[in-house]
Specification:
Length: about 290
């Protein structure tokens, strides 16, 4: 079998000879392949059999490594994005010297939802007719094979997970528990990136064990966040600000990125808790802790 047949996979090869910069491995035919000394932690001897992963190096040559990656042709695994090249695609580190390309044709049309460096994808490898190795993302059926079923006890549970598919109508998530979930566009403030880690909560458990997820915080969590925003601003101004429940909506939006209704709810809560008070259109931090 030609060495090209092993590209993106592992093969049992024999050390045919040693060189100053590594070893040459053979499949018993006339071909051999370089195992660079940077690609093995072992000291090998002529005639020794080794298991090696074969890939194409940056010069277009077949190369070998004894650092066997989880991600191979026909085998899926999680791997991180190492670089992003607009108009080309994203490069992914599978654990060998050369990062593998996920081409732009296999990525979302809008680059805004392409993965960023550090994002994580569930992938395999494919080899094209020119013996080039590319990354292939897991499809929905592949995710289904590794997913576990949620139960009604998981309803309203806080979760986090990775986005494995994204579209205008919604995003698909694989959670840390192994649940396969869907995030409807109405349940997200923005469209998450492919491979992005997000946090949310389960809002429905389907009969098939998949879940619906919301990335929108619960009302009390939103109120907490809005209240903290107001308090932080007050503290940055020595406890006084020219904003109150009579302020213009556009002024509130510009300063706090909040609607007037959200601002009034948060301000009302802070007043009820005795943390702030209002006088003549201004709001003050109550340093005594009582109104």
């Amino acid at each position: 079998m030609a060495l090209e047949e092993y590209l993106g996979s592992t093969a049992r090869l024999t050390v045919s000879r040693q060189a100053a910069f590594g070893y040459f491995l053979t499949d018993g035919e006339e071909e051999d392949v370089l195992l660079h000394q940077n690609e093995t932690e072992e000291k090998l001897e002529e005639g020794q059999e080794v298991e090696a992963f074969l890939y194409v190096d940056s010069q277009g040559r077949i190369a070998a490594t004894t650092n066997i990656p989880e991600v191979q042709v026909g085998t899926y695994g999680w791997a991180q994005v190492s670089d992003v090249k607009p108009g080309i695609g994203v490069f992914i580190n599978i654990g060998v010297q050369k990062d593998m390309l996920l081409g732009e044709e296999d990525l979302p049309v809008h680059e805004a939802v392409w993965p960023k460096v550090g994002d994580t994808l569930y992938i395999t490898l494919r080899v094209n007719k020119n013996n080039r190795i590319y990354v292939k993302m897991a499809t929905d059926p592949v995710i289904s094979e590794i997913a576990v079923k949620a139960t009604r006890n998981d309803f309203n549970k806080n979760i986090h997970g990775l986005i494995y598919r994204t579209a205008k109508v919604g995003s698909w998530i694989f959670t840390a528990e192994g649940f396969k979930g869907f995030i409807h566009e109405s349940q997200r403030k923005r469209e998450p990136r492919l491979g992005e880690k997000v946090e949310g909560r389960i809002v429905d458990v389907k009969e098939d064990g998949t879940v619906n997820v919301s990335l929108i915080p619960r009302k009390h969590e939103v109120l907490d966040e809005d209240s903290e925003r107001i308090l932080s601003y007050l503290e940055s101004r020595n406890g006084a600000m020219p904003f109150g429940d009579k302020s213009a909506p556009e002024d509130i939006q510009e300063r706090f990125q909040l609607s007037k209704a959200s601002f009034k709810r948060a301000l009302g809560r802070l007043m009820k808790e005795g943390k702030v008070y209002q006088e003549e259109g201004w709001t003050y931090l109550n340093k005594n802790g009582q109104a």
